[in-house]
Amino acid sequence: xxxxxxxxxxxxxxxxxxxxxxxxxxxxxxxxxxxxxxxxxxxxxxxxxxxxxxxxxxxxxxxxxxxxxxxxxxxxxxxxxxxxxxxxxxxxxxxxxxxxxxxxxxxxxxxxxxxxxxxxxxxxxxxxxxxxxxxxxxxxxxxxxxxxxxxxxxxxxxxxxxxxxxxxxxxxxxxxxxxxxxxxxxxxxxxxxxxxxxxxxxxxxxxxxxxxxxxxxxxxxxxxxxxxxxxxxxxxxxxxxxxxxxxxxxxxxxxxxxxxxxxxxxxxxxxxxxxxxxxxxxxxxxxxxxxxxxxxxxxxxxxxxxxxxxxxxxxxxxxxxxxxxxxxxxxxxxxxxxxxxxxxxxxxxxxx
Length: 352
Prior knowledge:
By secondary structure, the protein is α+β, with helices and mostly antiparallel strands. It has helices at 11-28, 35-49, 52-63, 92-104, 120-129, 160-208, 212-222, 227-248, 275-285, 290-316, 323-343, and strands at residues 78-86, 110-114, 131-138, 143-145, 148-150, 152-158, 255-260, 267-269.
């Protein structure tokens, strides 16, 4: 969800590094995390570094999400249940009697869902006490308790654990942001040098076998401010994996018999549409086997599924793909292509 960008060394960068280091120390200590305070610190970091994309997320988590925006998944469809409870402030013992009465009647539990738009203060409170709200319906029956009738109302009840799960998701996202941002700001120049050297080797290999067009499209998209160019870069990540697979794996057989899969006889299917499997078979055939080979095949499957998921999402709504999505797809794609370029001779397999 959150990403970070390289910027030049400045006093604002030094200040951000100090703040992020303090937040990391808090995460690594045995003390409880003051999540509201951490969110505020991250807002300040984003403000002084002009990281507007990340700033929006932190502000929404602090103050609540505005109507009409896309909520994060961890805030959607929080599950609760429908109960009948006593009205007029009668104590929980009577409410328990009412609950037992309904259970004795054999009525099935009815569930409900809610989306959480509120800011961190509300979520923290709900994580301590849970949340309930009346539906406005009154019971047509009265339950006798100590020789008096008790009127009940229907309510939606959400246990505190549901909101604790939201806090855990927010905390994990914040930690990932803080950790990655600190690494980029503190060691960014070194990491950038490593990445540029890695990418140069990959580009040289791919251009030499005719895939320069895909590379240019990806680079142009990532350097653009146009959301349509980000989409184009993303689809080029998919296309280059597919086209490289077709180039490297030219054996006409339907399966690769040295790896298990869902093809005939339980073998790996390597037909034209199975380009992730083709790349996996190519790596295996070129000697990348064992745990390393299995890991790379899993990574290719993960990257493929991520791109396909974003493709389906994009078909339902406009401009849902962000620059961060395109960058993530590009990094994953370059990782796979880099492993191919470094571990193999990049010569096609025409017969195994």
